[in-house]
Design goal:
This protein is an alpha/beta fold. The protein has twelve helices and 14 strands. The strands form three sheets. It has a six-stranded mixed beta sheet with strand order 6-7-8-3-9-10, sandwiched between helices. Strands 2-1-4-5 form a four-stranded antiparallel beta sheet, with helices on one face. Helix 3 packs across helix 4, helix 3 runs parallel beside helix 5 and helix 5 packs parallel to helix 6. The two termini are 45 Å apart.
């Protein structure tokens, strides 16, 4: 659905050029939830704002549904933006207007008659579980409720694309989970393509299908969330995972110094997560296996696990361990052989 083709963007501040994006190329599929993650200043906000041309690329093109939106006329761009919803970190609601008026606002700009826009507003407010709050003002709502109004407003024009700019960063953990569940439900019910930026790996893990990692304006890694989380290739990705507590880390190294044999890192997902593969391989190959570190969890709806294991036994049996693990659906990385 979306092709970002060799996009670069440079800002000039205080006589100094700052490269916000550097030769970024990525594709986003229709109907998926695509996450962009990176530290502050990595270029995330610049990238997402290029998808509705709130920021224009200095170089490169952005194509949506086959159209080069960077070549749109003013009238074409206005029409395109009606099909793109956006929600923000700090909600950006009209404080002096009711919930109904906030949700109706983009419909009024689009020229929809009053009765129709109020009917559509009631539909999306029910979708975000705010039916009955039509006459409330933003100051009377919690942060989570205000963000739900922002989501309802973004959905009012029936967009095909929803952009989320740090949509949960201003919320507490419990409210964040409820908003993520709402976005997941909206994605499934409406088959809506969602692109979100965040600095939180937990947000990516809970919601996204695929992810791109930005570091200092460059795209350093992308792929399915399961693949990037379990088999990170770039130092920036590994650092983000370690800081969020979602990687095995290196705590096992102190233990490993006194443990003989091989050291392997095992990564697995799906059905392999609940299989007794270690006990089976230990019996079949007559290996002594010790778990030095490990974790299990879920990435969106996919169970996964990762552990560091010490394996001791005959050389031939240790060599046979890797293909046996591979046959069981387990990725094996030899840390010490």
């Amino acid at each position: 659905m979306i092709h970002v083709d060799r996009v670069s963007k440079t800002y000039v501040s205080g006589g100094r050029s700052i490269a916000a994006l550097r030769d970024v190329t990525l594709q986003i599929r229709a109907g998926e939830v695509f996450g962009v993650i990176g530290r502050s200043g990595a270029g995330k906000s610049t990238l997402i704002r290029m998808l509705n041309l709130l920021e224009r690329p200095g170089q490169g093109r952005v194509r949506v549904d086959g159209d080069d939106i960077t070549a749109f006329s003013s009238s074409q761009l206005r029409e395109y933006r009606r099909r793109v919803g956006m929600i923000f970190q700090h909600f950006n609601l009209l404080r002096s207007r009711t919930v109904m008026d906030n949700v109706c606002f983009p419909l009024r700009l689009a020229g929809m008659p009053r009765a129709q826009r109020r009917q559509r507003a009631r539909e999306v407010l029910e979708l975000v579980e705010l039916a009955g709050y039509e006459n409330s003002y933003p100051s009377q709502l919690s942060g989570g409720q205000q963000q739900r109004v922002g989501i309802a407003r973004a959905l009012a024009n029936r967009p095909r694309l929803l952009l989320c700019d740090e949509a949960t960063s201003a919320l507490d953990p419990q409210t964040t989970q409820s908003i993520l569940e709402l976005l997941r439900s909206i994605n499934e019910q409406l088959q809506l393509t969602i692109v979100l930026i965040t600095h939180g790996m937990d947000v990516i893990r809970a919601l996204c299908d695929r992810v791109a990692v930005l570091d200092a304006g460059a795209l350093v890694e992308q792929g399915t969330v399961v693949d990037v989380f379990l088999r990170p290739r770039h130092a920036a990705t590994r650092a983000l995972l370690a800081e969020s507590g979602m990687s095995a880390g290196n705590d096992w190294e102190a233990l490993a110094a006194d443990v003989p044999g091989w050291l392997v890192r095992l990564s697995y997902e799906g059905a392999a997560t609940t299989q007794p593969m270690l006990s089976r391989i230990s019996r079949e190959l007559q290996l002594d296996l010790s778990i030095l570190q490990g974790s299990v969890g879920t990435i969106k709806n996919t169970p996964y696990g990762q552990m560091v294991v010490a394996a001791n036994g005959r050389s031939a049996d240790l060599q046979a361990m890797i293909p046996a693990l591979d046959a069981a659906g387990v990725h094996c990385e030899v840390l010490r052989g």
